[in-house]
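Example A, followed by Example B.
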Amino acid sequence: MATSNPVHAATTTDHDEHGLAHVMPVRILVNIFLILVLLTIVTVGATFFPTGNFEIGISLGIATVKASLVAAYFMHLRYDNPMNAVLFAFGLLFVALFLGFTMMDSAQYQPDLIINQPGALGGS
């Protein structure tokens, strides 16, 4: 059925059928927000416990979970094309690899930076 209103005819394009945004219930968004707040509290609480060499890994793990939740729900990646989720996962993998190689490299010359540590250039 053709419409006689040219303005209405111009606004009913195929954009209405694509569903450009996914409407999420407020309950889900509030729950994700509360989980993010809880993870932030866990991150701050983790600083009070001596975890030694695992401190960076724990902090980065919590930050990765938080970033994944934000990308999945607030950026609607969960309801988007699955290929975008695969690209996001590969991005996280490459960041983890780059940080891992950087941490391994810094472990090689770390004794040289601490003067009083045995085996350092100026130490005993």
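Example B, a separate protein, is given below in the same form.
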Amino acid sequence: MINQKQIKSLHQKKYREHYNLFIIEGVRSFISAVEANAKIKLIFYTIEFSKKNPWLKKKLYQIPNKIVSIEEIKKLSPVKSPSGILAICEIPEFNLLDKKKNLIYLDSLSDPGNLGTIIRTATWFGVSQIGYSKKSIDPFNPKVVRSAMGSHFNLSWLGELSLNDIKEYEIIGADHRGKSLEEVQPFNNKWALVMGNESHGISDNIKKAIKHLVSIPKIGEGESLNVGVSMGILLHELTK
């Protein structure tokens, strides 16, 4: 049985990797995990949560679970205001990277909310493979998982990649100094869309490998777009 000390240790990346487990917090993430037949090891929930969510008992079928107090779930949860349900899940076993399918590549992305948004947005547009550089935030960080709202389970591949791993793709980089996406011809080959760090953009070594540097035309005012918003706009055009 997983103990509380072990669960709290999953707030840190090294223990998630050690135990091959991560925390799912929140209703939508939990439901997505169940529907995807994720390997859920244990569920904690409060009486208050079960009263507000009568569907819960059906979802708990054959999954080990435990009723805890509000105080206990606050101690276990990585968020300040837990929803009332928390699950411990095995990190998914993804398929091998398929180089015949398009890819999102994240270069030193650091914000968990942005990564969660990117995972949700990528799957919305049918892009099910996401690679990230060594310096990027862990995709199983609890804040990323909460922000992604279950979209991890819609990915076919997620993992760390080097520049050498994506050299076979038609590499597209998002940068405000690039050509307007409207001016770029449709891509016949499978592409990798590179999104850079929130503050510093795409690193110099990655830029050298980029074949097409593209930007989003500005109509109004503002210095820049959020990286998740930018990727959504670019994917809307790239997946037409």
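On Example B: The CA atoms of residues 171 and 211 lie 6 Å apart.
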